[in-house]
Amino acid sequence: MFEELEKVREKCLKCTKCDLHKTRNNIVFGDGVVGSKIMLIGEAPGFNEDMQGVPFVGRAGKLLDDILGSVGLSRKENVYICNTVKCRPPENRNPEQVEKNACREYLDKQIEILKPKIILICGAVALNSMMGLNGGITKVRGKWFDGPNGSKMMPIFHPSYLLRNPSHKEGSPKWLMWQDIKEVRRYFDSL
Ligand code: URA
Questions:
Q1: Residue 184: which region, alpha, beta or left (left: phi > 0; alpha: psi -120 to 50)?
Q2: Which of 53, 71, 110, 189 has the fewest CB neighbours in a 10 Å radius?
């Protein structure tokens, strides 16, 4: 599995299929445990991710690690993390459709090789790519949908959104995320 994934990463390293390659410092392919039951798909690398070549290492990434950690999950032990688009869009704008299309083969290969049982769709960009839905996460978050290879997919809020909405009150986005991640843990334990 690791070798197969490595071949895809090497192809991605040389990728010039869209203009994002011109401004990237690093591709941001994926991080975490190869072969884990949970794959989390984010949007695209930001400044810190582009500099380090690792997904979710900035403020949003720290929050994501805390959210996973709150139910005993981590990228060191049981989660693989990647993004819809592997190169940083300038000024952190949302990736354009041509960029998402160009990058799609890498995400598809990651899913095909890793065969996660649980796919967490983190944010609206991933929601659009994985489920073809436009619009926000709010209406679909916390629900299970059938995914590739018999997996279950759950859309969840993006941690950047939670950073902008810090309330913990019942019904707030952070509170909802807490319900969702507990459900993820429950399902993970049942596998
Ligand atoms: N936001 C994302 O969606 N992915 C990252 O890797 C970092 C921030």
A1: alpha
A2: 189
Residue 71 Rama label (left phi>0; alpha psi -120 to 50; beta) = alpha
Atom of ligand 1 nearest to the CA of 122: 3
- Distance (Å, whole) CA 33 – CA 12: 19
Distance CA(103)–CA(24), nearest Å, equals 14
> b vs e for 29-38, b when ≥16 Cβ sit within 10 Å of the residue's Cβ?
bbbbbeebbb
Ligand 1 neighbourhood includes 45 CB (under 6 angstroms) = yes
- Specify the amino acid at residue 136: G
Residues of the chain with confidence (pLDDT) below 70: none
Compute the Cα dihedral for 157, 160, 165, 168 and give only its sign.
Answer: positive
Q: What share of the chain is helix, strand, coil (3-state, %, to 5)?
A: 45, 15, 40
Regarding the beta carbon of 43 and ligand 1, being less than 6 Å apart is answered yes
The predicted-structure confidence for 103-159, as pLDDT tens digits, reads as follows: 999 999 999 999 999 999 999 999 999 999 998 999 999 999 999 999 999 999 999
Cβ(42) – ligand 1 distance below 6 Å: yes
Tokens of 190: 């049942």
